[in-house]
Amino acid sequence: MTRIGILIGSTRPGRKGDRVARWVHERAARRGDAEFEVIDLLDHPLPHLDEPLPALAGRYRHGHTRAWADTIARFDGFVMVTPEYNASIPGVLKNAIDYLYAEWTHKAVGFVSYGGGGGTRAARQLRTVCELLRMSAVTPQVSLSLHTDFEDDATLTPGAHHVSALDTLLDDVVTHSTEGRTATPTQRETDEAAIRHHIGKIIDAIRAKDLEGLRRHYSTDVVSFDIDPPLRHVGIDAKLANWANVFTFFREVTYELRHLMPTVGEDVAFTHAFGRLSGTLPDGTAVGGMWVRVTFCFRKIDGDWLITHDQVSVPLDMPGGRGVVDLEP
Questions:
Q1: pLDDT by residue (tens digit) across 15-30?
Q2: Is residue 184 scored above 60 in pLDDT?
Q3: Are the beta carbons of 18 and 25 closer than 8 angstroms?
Q4: Closest-CA residue to 309 (of 269, 278, 274)
Q5: Residue 91, in any domain of the structure
Q6: Cα separation of 229 and 155, whole Å?
């Protein structure tokens, strides 16, 4: 079923956004054509945008970004609830939006604003931001006045015309979200998303020191040109033995990739990136690790993309005959 997220765009103590979102959810829950869920930014604390690459690249470095992306990706459309602060939207809402791109794109969105003048200036700016993200912003809008729609500046008492406007807004959001949900992505988009998903699961398994989790993402005949001798490691058991050595060496493991770039064909694909393995030794010493060059080669086997070859390398100082391990991407 179509899923619509009702996003509370304020985290300020004493905010009214939770009451507005509750009203939207209670009204929406009467419908049978979609599922509705409140997304509270208080439950998703994000620092000021700290991703090294633009969201358009779709390569998220930090765990908090990936968790936020997973949350937003679950929904087919949104109702954004925003106050108006100094003729604009709250910084926390803009920050949360800026973290992502593909997770927003092509999804429907409607706006419920509130403020001294109904929050219309904030809603106007929010509409512009969402349209730049190629979201489908519906025309109906709800604008609640702090003077006439809140009793004693606390209890929400929207007029009947707001209820009618909200119903119309929900009609349009659900309709556009359902249409977007049934649209079929291209095979290349599907395959690229699957490969990014595999890479993300590999990172998660490395950080969890989960050998069986890693096993699921390699072919049984994988050939690995790893950073440590010998020149090649053949077969899944040899590849996992390398990771087992890493997991023994480190008490806690951190692994990150930057500049991941996939190229997808019909049944063969490859990605290249910069990777860094770091962690904490058994005695508590933190090891920063070094940046290396990483290539993953995939084959589609029985409908699933599996790594059949990977290669890790560092640049070579030719006169000295030593690897250069102090470079950063």
A1: 999 999 999 999 999 9
A2: no
A3: no
A4: 269
A5: yes
A6: 69
Q: Give a yes or no: residue 48 inside a domain.
A: yes
Q: Which residue has the tokens 């291209």?
A: 186
Condensed to tens digits (0 to 9), the pLDDT of residues 220-245 reads: 999 999 988 899 999 999 999 999 99
Give the DSSP per-residue string, 86-146. TTB--HHHHHHHHT-STTTTT-EEEEEEEETTTTHHHHHHHHHHHHHTT-EEEEEEEEEET
34 belongs to a structural domain: yes
User: How confident is residue 252, by pLDDT bands cut at 50, 70 and 90?
Assistant: very high
Range of the domain at 99: 3-182
Map tokens 């991941």 to a residue: 260
Q: Which of 59, 10, 23 is nearest to 157 (CA)?
A: 23
Category of 284 on φ-ψ map: left (φ > 0), alpha (ψ -120 to 50) or beta: left
In order of 72, 122, 149, 317, the CA distances from 78 in angstroms are 9, 17, 23, 53
Any idea what the CATH number is for the domain that residue 160 is in?
A: 3.40.50.360
The predicted-structure confidence for 150-165, as pLDDT tens digits, reads as follows: 998 889 999 999 999 9
The span from the CA of 146 to the CA of 151, in Å, is 9
Helix (H, G, I), strand (E, B) or coil at 246: helix
CA–CA separation, 118 vs 124, rounded Å?
Answer: 11
From 121, 155, 182, give the residue that closes a domain. 182
Residues 39, 162, single domain; the answer is: yes
Give the pLDDT band of residue 183 (cuts 50, 70, 90): low
Query: Of 140, 187, 223, 167, which is closest to residue 29 (Cα–Cα)?
Result: 167
pLDDT at 186 over 70: no
Q: What is the pLDDT of residue 194?
A: 83
Average pLDDT estimate for 277-281: 91
Which amino acid would we find at residue 244? A
Higher pLDDT, 317 or 167: 167
Together in a domain, 264 and 158: no
Between CA 121 and CA 114 the distance in angstroms is 10
Is 328 within the bounds of a domain?
no
The number of distinct structural domains making up the chain is 2
